[in-house]
């Protein structure tokens, strides 16, 4: 027991128990708890007028052949070390041996009624969240995004293809070279660069599940 529990057990105040501890009457374990049997043995050896609290057993007489334990230089071994009943270990936590519940698989076609209801609520919650994020402008329609991406990429590609003819004459005048030759060279290198970039017809925006 704790000292407070032992005080209630003996019907005294905690101050009395603290006093007993100071007098060396409490048999205390390494973790500070009171060994009940050994402590009550020590308390029952005192005169009746000094016993204090509730008497749980008659005073145990000591054979005349033995000296008074209080007069010995070393304290008398506690009854706990002389065959007191061993303290029972606390019962095991039932949660330790309980089998972990199976992992919830929302794609399982054979769900129980409760699990199917849970899946329905989860999907409804995800749908409402998607609608909310769409209204907030944080989500866009995938088909519309792909169409906008394709149109923008196609416009940039067309602008690059028209760029050599648009700037070829001005660049030729600045470099003092033939305008037709320079335009053809620029067009060749622009087409080569666009070929390396690839066609914008299949943008890699990731699968719907990845988002």
Automatic annotation (TrEMBL):
Name of protein: Elements of external origin
Organism per entry: Methylobacterium indicum
Region named Disordered: 39-109
Composition bias, Basic and acidic residues: 63-74
Composition bias type Acidic residues, residue spans: 93-106
């Amino acid at each position: 027991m704790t000292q407070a529990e032992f005080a209630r057990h003996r019907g005294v105040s905690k101050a009395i128990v603290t006093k007993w501890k100071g007098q060396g009457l409490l048999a205390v374990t390494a973790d500070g708890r009171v060994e009940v049997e050994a402590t009550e043995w020590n308390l029952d050896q005192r005169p009746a007028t000094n016993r204090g609290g509730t008497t749980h057993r008659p005073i145990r007489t000591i054979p005349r052949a033995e000296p008074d334990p209080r007069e010995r230089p070393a304290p008398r071994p506690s009854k706990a070390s002389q065959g007191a009943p061993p303290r029972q270990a606390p019962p095991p936590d039932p949660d330790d041996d309980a089998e972990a519940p199976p992992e919830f698989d929302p794609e399982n076609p054979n769900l129980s009624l409760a699990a199917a209801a849970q899946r329905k609520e989860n999907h409804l919650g995800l749908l409402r969240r998607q609608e909310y994020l769409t209204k907030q402008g944080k989500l866009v329609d995938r088909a519309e995004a792909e169409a906008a991406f394709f149109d923008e990429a196609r416009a940039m590609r067309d602008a690059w293809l028209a760029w050599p003819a648009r700037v070829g004459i001005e660049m030729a005048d600045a470099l003092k070279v033939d305008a037709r030759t320079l335009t053809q060279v620029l067009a060749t290198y622009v087409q080569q660069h666009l070929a390396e970039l690839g066609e914008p017809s299949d943008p890699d925006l990731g699968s719907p599940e990845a988002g």
